[in-house]
Amino acid sequence: MIGKGLDRLVEGMSRRIAQRSSRRSFVSRLGMAVAGGVALPILPVDRRGQIKMAHAEEFAKTAQTTDMTACNYWRYCSSDGYLCSCCGGTYNQCPPGSQPSPTSWVGTCINPDDGQAYLIAYRDCCGKDSCGQCACLGLEGEYPSYRSELNNDIIWCFGAPTMVYHCSSAVLIGKA
């Protein structure tokens, strides 16, 4: 009995909709929905993340701008891994024999000299065995792995010729 009543209700609603709309308007609306769905992935993504200012300011209290081989160098606030500056490279370049990954995670760090927040791209250098020197674990602005662009626990050698991790570099992108 309940099934017959539900069938009548659905049939009645379907007939009313069919009487008030044409096939062309349905196809037109379906086309707009599909086109909108295709355009959705090209919308910009906020990769800066939401800085937790209390934590960023806490790191900035002890951060310094002179020793690029120390974990408290201001650009390393979200770095996780071995510093390329201790492995034969610089803070923003891979050592010889390793290649930068085309992918990266991002973080927002405060430069203690000017008090400004900057967006930093952390790029893993791949192709050689792990450096094993200057291991740093920065957590500023890190998100769980379901927000992978803001997670530093992933080996970011995607797209590189090899997935072997060597060290991590910190490239300044601009002001946050």
Question: Would you mind describing this structure in some detail?
Answer:
This protein is an alpha+beta fold. The chain has helices at residues 2-20, 23-39, 53-62; strands at 80-82, 99-100, 105-110, 117-126, 135-137, 165-175. This is Methylamine dehydrogenase (amicyanin). There is a cross-link at residues 105-156 (Tryptophan tryptophylquinone (Trp-Trp)).
What composes the largest sheet?
Answer: 4 strands, antiparallel
The level 1 CATH classification of the largest domain is Mainly Beta
Q: How widely separated are the two ends?
A: 63 Å
Count, helices = 3
Mean pLDDT equals: 79
What is the count of β-strands? Answer: 6
Rounded to the nearest angstrom, the radius of gyration is: 25 Å
Q: Given the C-alpha coordinates, what overall shape results?
A: elongated
Bin the strand percentage.
Answer: 15-25%
How would you sum up this structure in a few lines?
With about 180 residues, the protein is of the alpha+beta class. The protein has helices spanning about 1-20, 25-40, 55-60, and strands at about 80, 100, 105-110, 115-125, 135, 165-175.
